[in-house]
Amino acid sequence: xxxxxxxxxxxxxxxxxxxxxxxxxxxxxxxxxxxxxxxxxxxxxxxxxxxxxxxxxxxxxxxxxxxxxxxxxxxxxxxxxxxxxxxxxxxxxxxxxxxxxxxxxxxxxxxxxxxxxxxxxxxxxxxxxxxxxxxxxxxxxxxxxxxxxxxxxxxxxxxxxxxxxxxxxxxxxxxxxxxxxxxxxxxxxxxxxxxxxxxxxxxxxxxxxxxxxxxxxxxxxxxxxxxxxxxxxx
Length: 234
Prior knowledge:
With 234 residues, the protein is mostly helical.
């Protein structure tokens, strides 16, 4: 062994020491950046955003389908009910005044045609209310919607239907007033149900999108970056 080689060996290999220092620094930085990856609001200086891998990105939480369906049914029925209460029933006295002898025919036609709308709306209300109560049995809003549905059905069966039967025999101002009052009960219940459905969907929906990291083979995709691999190998 030459004297020069011995001298170099005594001092150590400067190039080897420098390479070891660089690898150590990169591994430390990789560990620091990987730790900060789980906290998007805090990124240490020198850490660049890693390129996104397929499947990684911002995703929203799943939507409660029962709550969405119930809101659609409640909104449809409330709009229908307010139209009947504010437009259709106030026209009954006008039709009776125009031709009192044919009002019974007018009422019969009304019942036949309105049934094509009421039937599907009632079916949607009952089915979606049952779905909401089944999926969220502890939610007070679901039971408020169930009570509103019960009020709509009861006021229809025991109030509106008998008054319509009386009007089908001929014009009766007292029967029309009672019908309009019973319809007010249905309209109020439908409005309460719509408000409950809106609040229910709001309670079932997260405040905003959440940042998630895709998983592959049980490991986070973010953990496959070169810096993280260097930190793990250090």
